[in-house]
Give the backbone structure.
Amino acid sequence: MARIFAYIVHRGGVVDDSAAELIAAARKIDPNTTPTAIVTGCGGDLDAACSLAASTYSEVWKIANDALTYPNAELVRQALVSVLPPNSILLVLHDHFGIDLSPGLSIKLNSAFVSDVLAIDGFDGDSLSLVRQEFGGQVSTHVRCDISSGAVINIRPGAFKAERTVPASGVVVDKSSQIGALTARRRYLETIVAESGDVDITKLSVLVSVGRGIQEKENVVIAEQLAEALGAAVSCSRPVVDAKWMEKSRQVGSSGKTVKPKVYLACGISGAFQHLAGIKGNPFLIAINKNSKAPIFQVADIGIVDDVLEFLPELTNQVRELRGVAAK
């Protein structure tokens, strides 16, 4: 069996929730394995991230270099090529950085590449069966991947539920000396922080999030009424912002904000990976969509096939009745 690695995303010394999801994905390939974590960066933030990763991974490879202060995929690719053993399987989060990193890395490693994986069906010899989505999530494709020369696999955020694991006391192995000089044709300029808006959706425990299924700006009030009854706030997917139905500060996703609510109601949202990438912490996810084949149902804890314009007002009435709150 090829050795399995997981590339760990971190910021400010804090490891992303996807680190635990990558362990769950690895165990779909080999139930008896815990992958080796790879963490890149520099300084105290890197050391802190390695220590946190070692609490769930039995082995963590640390790659420190001043050039990796900002995660430039061009430089990280060079570093990984230097340290990964032949025929390795590398799991990478399918976010903007992972999409930038992985295709070129698989070419340099002469290995297979599969993107946006949301399920792993099994492993047989040198063949790995995977499920990914195409055409904006409208089609689920079953892929048989030859991993005899290794593979780079991008895992969709939230597709694999993090398992409850016994805290580990992993060892951190410094691989920094193996990577040599790193050079790139592009450089980091700045990070532009998203506008704060009137409500900070990143701090709330319950969100009612609307997507294209809300149909028009005037219908957003339906979600606002439900949010008020629940003591929540309304967030949205990118199409709602692009249509100027809600402000950018309410957008959840890879090009919006990252949220960690306890409960997330996805109303009329298809469930593209760009949106799911902004939902962390494994919230209780309730999906409401009239399209029974919407990708959101594959990651939802509860799925309701219905028109949000009809379902949300009825749900609001039921919540108000239970809480003894009169309708305004």
Residues 93 and 155 are 5 Å apart (CA to CA).
